[in-house]
Design goal:
mainly alpha
């Protein structure tokens, strides 16, 4: 296994873990009731309808991330969600018990955004022969 393959395996693991985490978080928002999430968003000064947008991005994005379809764009959406979460809900709680998870998920998302083609990703089937563009 050369260094390129090791990098691809690492990115694959990040993609699967990140996809699973967001899939579960999105599912929990639906399971727990989106009206409660919308109320929480409102208490942070965010529009309540954004709870629905975030829940769909997390759930659908998690599935897409797991199968490796639209990885870069989904990772960018996850990064934006984590930045908003850090600065609206978590920063005041400090690092430990506050924004450390969101910061880790932000780093994972940015890492996947900046990587090229993914190992064992469905998007490779659709992009054969195309340049590795965003």
């Amino acid at each position: 296994m050369n260094s390129i393959n090791k990098w691809q395996y690492g990115a694959f693991i990040l993609r699967i873990v990140l996809g699973l985490i967001f899939l579960v978080h999105g599912y929990q928002k639906f399971e727990g009731g989106l009206s409660g999430v919308a109320g929480f968003f409102g208490s942070l000064g965010l529009p309540g309808f954004m709870a629905y947008v975030v829940a769909v991005i997390e759930l659908a994005g998690g599935i897409l991330m797991l199968i490796g379809l639209g990885t870069r764009w989904i990772a960018a959406a996850f990064a934006v969600i984590m930045l908003v979460a850090i600065f609206t809900a978590k920063l005041s709680q400090g690092f430990t018990g506050g924004y450390e998870l969101e910061l880790a998920l932000l780093g994972m998302s940015l890492g996947l955004f900046f990587t090229g083609k993914q190992f064992l990703a469905l998007e490779n089937v659709f992009s054969r022969g195309k340049a590795n563009a965003l």
